[in-house]
Amino acid sequence: MTYTILGRCQRTGRVGIGIATFSITVGRYCWGVKSNVGVTVSQAFANERNNALALRLLTQGFTARAVLQQLMDNDPYAEYRQIGVIDRTGMAVAHTGPKTRGWSGHVVGENYVAFGNGLMGPEIADAIAKGFLAEPESDLEHRLLMGIEAGRDAGGQGTRERPKTERSAALRVYSTDAFADIDLRVDLHDKAVDELRRVWSYFKPYEPYYRHRERNPRGAMGQEEFMKTLQAAE
User: Fold this and answer.
1) What structural domains does the chain harbor?
2) Three-state secondary-structure class, residue 90
3) What pLDDT digit, counting tens, does each position of 89-132 carry?
4) What is the pTM of this model?
């Protein structure tokens, strides 16, 4: 029971993932993102080795379509997986195996894959895609959050008789550095998507401050002083 948006920003080339699920600690599965390379994830009956293999192949210049085929050819349980891949050009592909549970499926377009398993129905994947596409000029992390929020608002996981809340969620975005611009996760919460938005909103003004500390440690203000500037701005 997981729903996900993989995305690439056409304007900046940034790549990232937004994910939410009934399971706990989903952030540990969503590390398949690399600057100037692409983004991938394996879910449902997740195979973490797929992420590592996909990133290696994408780094070597394989297209998203070729990578997906390799992942399926090398996995005897591919019929139990959902896999999404976006390469550095924005080519996006996905696979939903017939043995994933509940309603499972994907919506794919240039620069995005919206997909999930154990969902209320196909309208959830459609909503995730529409949420991601709603503000194409916004920062990628905001668009990814809008995607999973739209999935939640459309009904999310489970069935109409037995809906399932999101207990964990994660957001990860890379641009040009070897490390992430955004790497946030909620491992256990009764409203994990709401909490992820709250954490991101709180972190957003800190992002340039932490960058400045890295680049100019001698001239950087202390964190408590910086917090006072935020309070004054409010």
Assistant:
1) 2-232 (3.60.20.10)
2) coil
3) 999 999 999 999 999 999 999 999 999 999 999 999 999 999 99
4) 0.94
